[in-house]
Amino acid sequence: MAAPPELVVNAYSTGWLKRGFPWVYPAEVVRGTAAPGTVVRLRGEGGTALGVGIADRGWISVRRFRQDDGPVDAPLIAARVAAALRRRGNLGPDTTAYRLVNAENDDLPGIRVDVWGRVVVVAIDSPSLRALGEAAGLAAGDLLGGIDAVWLSERRDPRDVERAAAAPRCIFGDATLLDVVVHELGLAFEVRPPLGKDAGLFTDMRDNRAWMAGHWKDTRVLNLFAHTGAFSVSARHGGAGQVVSVDLSEGYLTRARRNFDLNELDPGELLAEDCFKVLDRFRRQGRRFDRVVVDPPGYSHSDAGTWQGERDWARLAAASLRVLEPGGWLIAASNLGTQSPKQFGGALQEGAERAGRELRLCHEGTPGVDHPAALHFPESRYLKFWVMEAGDVA
Questions:
Q1: Under CATH, which architecture does the 74-182 domain have?
Q2: Topology at the third CATH level for domain 6-66
Q3: Does this model's pTM top 0.90?
């Protein structure tokens, strides 16, 4: 068998690879080419062996899978999936939805494996990883046992503007099993596994919902960008006296209503509107809340305008604080990896100043054990979840 092609990287990339970083960018390759999906060997300009990876095109040139010269094959993938499963530990009572493999943080760059009850979904960041993604999904099914279906989906990074994601496909089991009821800390949620990241429940928020569980009783809760209502369901289950869920998508709120029904809970108000319009109306009406949950996407668009997280957090924080009671909590989450905690805090402080309020950080949450963050991969520490007490209006 012919030796894998070799790519030579510059000194900057060599330094990062030696520290464990798993990516090589196009500008860092000084010699050599390889077709996407090809196994390649990496070397520094001085001849240092830097491991083996999978070549790609686009904003990443190589994802490194091992630091020695061994094979990148199904047995390696199965061993990495097994190691990830051992790391998961205790996910909490009656929890059947979790991330089994967290890509680079579990030594499988570009490959995520999520478990939704008896369905496994593999999400890959590039078509170059299809074969390895299939191997990861089948290995997960074998390890877990009793799996009804395994799906392979693609996540197109917005930086890969020329490449469309292929439709999800079932690689094992029952392809007609589209809606599944899963459990998180004793609550039931309906998800659609083939939708990948849009399945309907963000498991990286599970520990934060768990922390909030004891802080909802007898409160008035406003949940903005409510998605399928996980925080709203948790709040009602925790004894909230009033829950208002707002999302631009009628479809998401229909799914939220289904989640309330599954748990035999009153859904309260479900408003399919732009969050800024709702906040302005509530401000004018004098409606106030004890808890305002703000967990927006990085980007969204409506008739009222475009939301961009890196630009608009101060405006959103100010509008939210104008309907928050003194002593109430602003519960703010950002999943933008490009936004540092310092930038996030700065935007929240700017919003507080606009609203004439003071904010005090009470709690800073993180993803759970199923979303580990490798220290050699800084990009993994994306989530900011801050619970802040708001002072009196100035």
A1: 2-Layer Sandwich (3.30)
A2: 2.30.130
A3: yes
Q: What is the pLDDT of residues 151-202, one digit of tens each?
A: 999 987 666 656 667 889 999 999 999 999 999 989 999 999 999 888 999 9
For the chain, give every residue range classified as CATH 3.40.50.150: 202-390
pLDDT per residue over 121-135, tens digit each?
999 999 999 999 999
Q: Taking Cα atoms as reference points, which of 193, 191, 87, 81 lies closest to residue 138?
A: 81
| Average pLDDT estimate for 8-31 | 97
Indicate the CATH number of 202-390 among 3.40.50.150, 3.40.50.2000, 3.40.720.10, 1.20.140.10.
Answer: 3.40.50.150
Q: Give the sign of the dihedral formed by CA 128, CA 134, CA 136, CA 137.
A: positive
Give the HSE-up count for residue 301: Cα atoms under 13 Å, Cβ half-sphere: 0
Average pLDDT, the chain: 93
Strand partners, 388: 330, 361
> In one letter, which amino acid is 169?
R
